[in-house]
């Protein structure tokens, strides 16, 4: 029989938390409001597993929202962080590890010539936008519907991720004049790109985009959409999509690069999620597209708070102390995060788990599609590398509008169904699930068993 949704200790902790923490959480999606029930409280993580305070175990596909590509508590990453901590948690001064960290990033991502570390992706995005406005002397920023780039005021317009989950894509507290210079266009629409640059290109300081959208769920750019599309003959209308990155025709990202260059705007790739997730380096390298600035986070910190922005040297020279664009941070380049990030890089470079991760993800997503057909539950599964999203819709998901057409209530029932059976997905229809190097075929089999049972309940 399925287990109860929330254990006694988790329930007690949540009641205590609600008395002190806003909503009982420190980040909105953790509250489980979009999937029903109360959150489970985690005691520890190891490998591909999470263990809650009530002694229950879960196969984890959230992985702290992406950073843990090696799995929870990898011994070599832990050892590196512990050794760094023994030397001091923070110096507020220069140290060797931040230099080694920067060298490792630049070696892996050649189009980053200079870099500045921060403590979060949001901080890095905010700084990159300020830099772009200074370099170009322009005000307007172009972003894309469903793209979430942290809680930067001017970008909380048509944001995905938790904002979609809670039905408030535009956050309260953001003055109208602060978003007046934010232009929003649909993701994957090259004709809309041509129109917006034709009409306002001379005023655009920068365009910011996730090369693979990950905060409305996984949505691939049309640059990768070169494979065949075949509609299954199942009564539920579920569809299978084959994605193949095959350069040839100009897709969405290629068009964006061409138009930004033509009109003198900077192109910013937000690779907080995709950086070091799809390959050892940046996703931009998959399509041979060179952005002017790149935002990194998550994996580069090895599970510790970290962010970074970097790009062409002539652009980065505008940042203080070399230039007039001020940005600072007490914990920027933190030695513990640097040590964990370097240990993660070393292991990724040594083991190159990306092909194996892709195969495991395909085994899982193919199994989900098969069970969708057999159960009559319509889903669309988008995936690339070790990232995937199960959308509860029968139509192909290629942009924010098609993602929002998903049945979030059905996803909530699905989430609770697999949670009861020991599988932990991100608690939102509009998020990305991840695999780690610690996952094996054993975890995939357990997950597919849980999904089969959950589909039957739906």
Report strand %.
5-15%
* Class per helix and strand makeup: alpha/beta
The number of domains is 2
What is the CATH level 1 assignment of the largest domain? Alpha Beta
The second-level CATH architecture of the largest domain is: 3-Layer(aba) Sandwich
Major sheet characteristics: 7 strands, mixed
Give the low-pLDDT segments.
161-169, 226-247
Helix content: 25-40%
- CA-based shape: globular
Q: What is the rounded Rg?
A: 21 Å
N/C terminus separation: 16 Å
Tell me the number of strands: 16
Strand order of the largest sheet: 4-12-11-10-7-5-6
Could you report the average pLDDT, rounded to the nearest whole number?
90
CATH topology of the largest domain, by name, is Aspartate Aminotransferase, domain 2
Helices and strands, in order, run as HEEEHHEHEHEHEEEHEHEEHHHEEHHEEH
Number of helices: 14
> CATH homologous superfamily of the largest domain?
Type I PLP-dependent aspartate aminotransferase-like (Major domain)
